[in-house]
Amino acid sequence: MRVAAPLLDMFAGPDGSGALTTQLLHGEAVDLYAADPGSGMAWVQNAADGYVGYVAGAGLAPDEAGPDDDPAPEFLVTGRGTQLYAAPGLKQVPCGALPWLARVRVAEERDGYARLGCGRWCPRPLLGRAAPGDFVAVAERLVGVPYLWGGRSQAGLDCSALVQLALAATGVAAPRDSDQQQALGAPADGACRRGDLLFWRGHVAIVAAPDTLLHANAHHMAVAIEPLRPALARIAATDTGPVTAARRLA
């Protein structure tokens, strides 16, 4: 199965109750374990990061290609999301949208547009593939995006989603939660460097420069860049406490 909705909320409770735990992006593969026709909810696991929870079953669809088929090439939405259109053309009225890093298959290209597996069209320049690069630069482009607990898109995300998605854009797979992300890389010894990850109890931030922190956080309720030392002092004074680990990815 794959996610057919643009963005699919995942919850811990079978009736969609409780906090939003994460979101699944369009085109991500999932393993379907159970479905309740009465409630319409499905119990699934994200094949990429292993996250398990309940989602609206209507947001899922069978994979476009079977195991013996030769599927169309898969791309990512590399722009900050894309509009969808019923036909190619600059003046077409949008009939939907997809988030950043949604996975799509291109069935046809015409006049600078791509027809996706869902039958809609989007501008071809907004599609690409993950490419090695500076994941910090990717994260910096998300400054100002609202903070959303469990969020995983340019419409709203949390601290660990910022890290996971920025790394994904550069071709690096990462776990969804900050405690699991502590296994990335190696211990960061000495002074902070650009690209280091700092961890607290339930929080992760990116070192954008030796004296600068970049993170999605509840203090600013957004992705923000701020001076490192004042941020460390402010966070240490909260229930989050002091830094518990520092990791270096390269």
UniProtKB/TrEMBL annotation:
Lineage: Bacteria, Pseudomonadati, Pseudomonadota, Alphaproteobacteria, Rhodobacterales
Location of the NlpC/P60 domain: 129-250
UniProt source species: Halovulum marinum
Family classification: Belongs to the peptidase C40 family.
Signal peptide per UniProt: none
Molecular function via GO: cysteine-type peptidase activity
Keywords: Hydrolase, Protease, Thiol protease
InterPro entries from the UniProt entry: NLP_P60_dom, Papain-like_cys_pep_sf, PG_Endopeptidase_C40, SH3_16
Record-given protein name: Peptidase P60
A Gene Ontology BP annotation from the UniProt entry: proteolysis
